[in-house]
């Protein structure tokens, strides 16, 4: 089951503070990078939920994000729906698509699961790429951001939009932890560790997998809506499998199955991409080598490594310092 | 148009040509998986490497030398990869292997960009094969026929080796049960190594023969990777029969889909893959039942 250790709390607090500081002090380019990180964070949270806690390594999460983005854009610009209503419908649609994919793929395991999700993701990609309704490979433009001027907030300002994304990310993170703490989340982890035993206990394992996949689709859909609003333009490239592949790389770099780790990974990945991108156009080479090194080191990503090294010691020291009578008190606040 | 016999002949030949190219790629990948349970996502990158080596050599040494040397060069790269990375990853889980080879894709992609630049290279066909051949009432490019014949020849050779020779029997035993094969005195580790190198060489060969048809770009490895994976998953991992069946299915669905239902063509193949996975989750002809 998912627990917040002191180290996780500390890293979350540092990340939140850093994001706030960046949001208030950075210039235009810094804000763009921050928003990119925040949206990627949502996508990798969605992926970590299924891959890290359910063993369902999905290569369609990029496509799910794209479905959310395209559904929002189509409903808001083509059908002329109110942006909030369009966003709601887009997220619901993404969740439904994710649930169906999860339900169909739940029977396959390992490489077959990866390939099946890849097939569905690429199916969506090819459909959008060819579809004249959604602009084909030209993409769609003219997407508006949410209108919050009624309460004095102008989201067309980058700084405000960054803060808005940060708030949404916070809510998404709480949503993910709530899923993992619920009975459903605990059953999911049980299914990951031993599906046969969970079946023997009388659980409907495919339903559990499909439900969590659907919930993960909600998060991916939210990420998609925000991604569409951020650039105000979408292209089929958003749905391509390489987006899902990169998200998987981020999850692994950060630490699979830790929720906090993928956030660290997202920051590291985007910063590395932009910093290296200034120095050399061959930043993929560096990312590739770092990825190989991380996987071969057998550590669970950057955060997993830190957790294995300092987590236990920090736990003990804090437990001694606060003399907490029960471990629940240390771990139970969100 | 669709009533015309020559139309069907032409499209069938096109489909066969695509199938054979995919077969050259997928057979290496699928047997490597069957033997080693190792998913080498970098297989597409090796294909691109083969195309680059061939395109470079063709200018100086000629087409035939390029087609012979490119697989050898790629096999050498395979030896380095095996010694440096893959042997160490043998004991880790499939997830780690997928990720390491994913990292390799990134690294090899940029290495080819550094060595050969971003611009597309072109490779010319030999004079013998650049003409047209009259076949069953249609005039068809000789080079494409050459690919079909080459693919069929390699399929026949592999089928013969796997079914009739001692090393073929050892490979089949290794795919079936590697621990038992090792107990019977087969050096499974060396077998892996040989199969891996042959798989890499075939990927390089596929790249080399594809180079004159397509433009040689750094992204070509990524483009071919997904079709290759679809082929081996539809066919079932680990078997020659699966690889050829998957390649033919992909080639025909893709080619006829593109001419008969252009709107649906690209979705069709993914829908087919999804259908196969739902009905037979391990593919049509898996090596192990």
Automatic annotation (TrEMBL), chain A:
Cellular localisation: Cell membrane
Primary residence: membrane
Stored Pfam families: BPD_transp_2
Transmembrane segments: 33-51, 58-78, 84-104, 111-129, 161-180, 212-235, 247-271, 283-306
Keyword Cell membrane in record: yes
Keyword set includes Membrane: yes
CC per GO annotation: plasma membrane
GO MF annotation terms: branched-chain amino acid transmembrane transporter activity
InterPro entries: ABC_transp_permease (IPR001851), LivM-like (IPR043428)
Membrane topology, from the record: Multi-pass membrane protein
Record keywords: Cell membrane, Membrane, Transmembrane, Transmembrane helix
Protein name: Branched-chain amino acid ABC transporter permease
Taxonomic source organism: Roseicyclus persicicus
UniProtKB/TrEMBL annotation, chain B:
GO biological process assignments: amino acid transport
Protein topology in the membrane: Multi-pass membrane protein
Keywords attached to this entry: Amino-acid transport, Cell membrane, Membrane, Transmembrane, Transmembrane helix, Transport
Principal location listed in the UniProt entry: membrane
CDD domains: TM_PBP1_LivH_like
GO MF entry, a single one: transmembrane transporter activity
Family: Belongs to the binding-protein-dependent transport system permease family. LivHM subfamily.
Pfam families (alphabetical): BPD_transp_2 (PF02653)
Compartment(s): Cell membrane
GO cellular component, one term: plasma membrane
Name the UniProt record assigns to this protein: Branched-chain amino acid ABC transporter permease
Transmembrane segments: 21-43, 63-86, 98-116, 142-163, 191-214, 220-240, 252-279
